[in-house]
Each structure stands twice: as structure tokens, then as C-alpha cells.
Design a protein that fits this description.
By secondary structure, this protein is an alpha+beta fold. The chain is 20% helix and 42% strand. The radius of gyration is 25 Å and the shape is elongated.
């Protein structure tokens, strides 16, 4: 009787282990939040570090997931003038292909240095957000 009880208990424990293992495998296949990074290729219009007052700075962007899959989500492009706490933001929808975007419009008739930040917030939660940033010197002529 004791051997039968031990056999039944070990069978139940093994079955629970198999069920838990298959659940863990399903979770791993879907990925957990922030599991994968997002690669990006950002190409600002020439000259990349100079912009023209009263206009926005254009650039192309491409994102790809770590396992080689397409990533879609929302892209936020923000500018902040150094010495100021004001941030201007534009929002774009990204669907997994190379996209041409522009920054918000730089203040007209103001020569200043700006910080441009591009942030992708992916729709799929297994991907981490991606942030890219660079400085742009803005002049009235658009030339340094």
C-alpha cells in the first residue's frame, strides 16, 4: 500500500512538472517584457549636425527586432533647446519599414543648439524601447 501511494504521488508531481514546464516553454516562445532589444539605423539629412531656423530637420529611420523580425510601434521625435526646459514633440506611427521623419520646427530667427531625441515605443512588449539622440546647431541660414 505504501509503495502504491508513493507511485501515485510521484506520478502527480511529475505531471505537475510537465504542465509547468510546457507553460514555461510557451511563455519563453512569446517572450517576456523587454526580452529583446531593437536595432536601429538613423540617417539625418546632410549636414546632420546643422539645421535651419524656422524649419524641421529631416532624417530616415529603420528599426528591426533582435531575432530578425519587423517591429512596429510609435515613434516620438522631440527637440529641446539647450538652456531651456521646453520640449517640443511630434508623434509618428512606425510600421516596420524605412520611414522619413522630421523634427518639430525649430524656433524662427533664433541661433541655438538643440538636442534631438528619437524614441521608439514598440507595440510588442517583448521589445525594449529604443532611444537615439544627437545635437543640432541651428542657424538662420542653415549653414554652420
Amino acid at each position: 500500500m505504501k509503495k502504491l501511494l508513493v507511485a501515485i504521488i510521484s506520478t502527480v508531481v511529475m505531471a505537475v512538472g510537465v504542465i509547468a514546464g510546457s507553460a514555461a516553454t510557451a511563455t519563453a516562445a512569446e517572450g517576456y517584457p523587454g526580452q529583446y532589444s531593437v536595432g536601429s539605423r538613423l540617417t539625418p539629412d546632410p549636414i546632420s549636425n546643422v539645421g535651419k531656423a524656422g524649419t524641421g530637420k529631416g532624417f530616415t529611420i529603420f528599426y528591426a527586432g533582435e531575432p530578425g523580425t519587423r517591429v512596429s510601434g510609435t515613434v516620438y521625435v522631440s527637440i529641446r533647446r539647450y538652456g531651456s526646459s521646453t520640449v517640443q514633440v511630434k508623434q509618428y506611427r512606425y510600421t516596420g519599414t524605412t520611414r522619413y521623419l522630421t523634427t518639430p520646427v525649430f524656433a524662427p530667427n533664433v541661433k541655438a543648439n538643440y538636442r534631438v531625441t528619437v524614441t521608439l515605443v514598440p507595440d510588442e512588449e517583448q521589445y525594449r524601447s529604443s532611444v537615439r539622440a544627437w545635437n543640432v546647431w541651428v542657424t538662420q541660414s542653415g549653414r554652420a
